[in-house]
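Hi Q.,

Before the meeting this afternoon, I wanted you to have the 7TS prediction in hand. No need to reply - just skim if you have a minute. The sequence and ligand are here:
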Amino acid sequence: MISSIDIQHVKSEFPIFDREIQPGSPIIYLDSAATSQKPRQVIEAITNYYEQSNANIHRGIHKLAEEATKAYESARARIGNFIGARSQREIIFTRNTTESINLVARSWGKANLQPGDTILLTEMEHHSNIVPWQQLAQEIGLNLAFVNVLDNGQIDLEDYHSLLEREPRLVGFTHMSNMLGTINPVADMTRAAHAAGAIVIVDGAQSVPHFPVNVLELDIDFLAFSAHKMCGPTGIGVLYGREELLEEMPPFLGGGDMIKRVELTEFTTNSLPYKFEAGTPAIEAGIGFGAAVEFLESVGMENIRLHEQELTAYALDRLEEVPGVRVYGPAADQKGGVMSFSFEGVHPHDVAQILDSLSIAVRAGHHCAMPLHEKFHLPATTRASFYLYTDKSEIDRLIEGLYKVKEIFN
Ligand code: 7TS
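Predicted structure with the ligand bound:
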């Protein structure tokens, strides 16, 4: 397979890669699962808003307010198209994936769940798709069930189907694991969940940035994702929700913008999506998010997936060469560009620190997936994660770095 991305051109779009951490040593950024780097066009969209159109949105009738509102709302439309939503009313701006999931738990959950109801999650969830459900479970007395993850890093589908027999009201799972890189069969899992009478929320924090995701094709009810992992700014994310469900849900936060009319003792809610967007939002971040999606579309999501598949296969091969290294998760065709590994006899933080001294940025820890680490009897792992700007020579540098770790610890 030949990379379908002109990697040098893509890289040149990211100003941060001009930086040298030590003289002659540019950054090797292998921490994109935590947050991605930002291309010039995103940074410029944000700067341009502040320099040319800064104003609050949805309320002013002056020129600047009109421009700001138009830029923010066209970002929403672009993002809606990007994930195949039927309408912009289905695109709720939040702060991040975490807030999107909390919105569903607080709003849909409180309105629809009764004591004794079951929520089905998986053992490979990020804390943000566990803790909000635990909080709700404590409050209203729900049962939480978790689908087993197999040793090869895949969801145990047999266990999934048998847990669906408990008739959960809601099923929530990640599209792609941020530790194992596992890509889950969302369409099949959703079909089964719907057949069992559940609604489905998908955590798209690691999928929407890396391959084409279409909410209609997948037929999911909710999708949560964050701009900052997909070349966009921090401070903004999306909750996609099926319009019929959103219409029935009570607001999450109360305040300005989410109302139609307020009297001293009561209020009526605004229409979608504003019903869920209380207060002045991160306007520049919304505009930057639109620019990020435009950038990703110009490269092509299929191309990004092909490029990352090639990197993943290459990295798995090369990591296996290093004595003492063990990578977790499935084979390359089932996996995104996330390599969590252990190094026999060396603590993950030491691995990360030595790599850092070589200008290689990786993450060490539990990656907000403590239950999954426990499952694999690991206190922590070192994680290298890739994106559209990662190239093979950087994986080679990582491997050289790991041989250096070996040398130091022998
Ligand atoms: N879900 C998954 C699968 C994630 O990987 C993350 C962030 C989140 C949810 C939460 O996203 P946020 O934008 O609300 O923070 N994952 C990581 C990570 O792997 N390292 O740092 C953040």
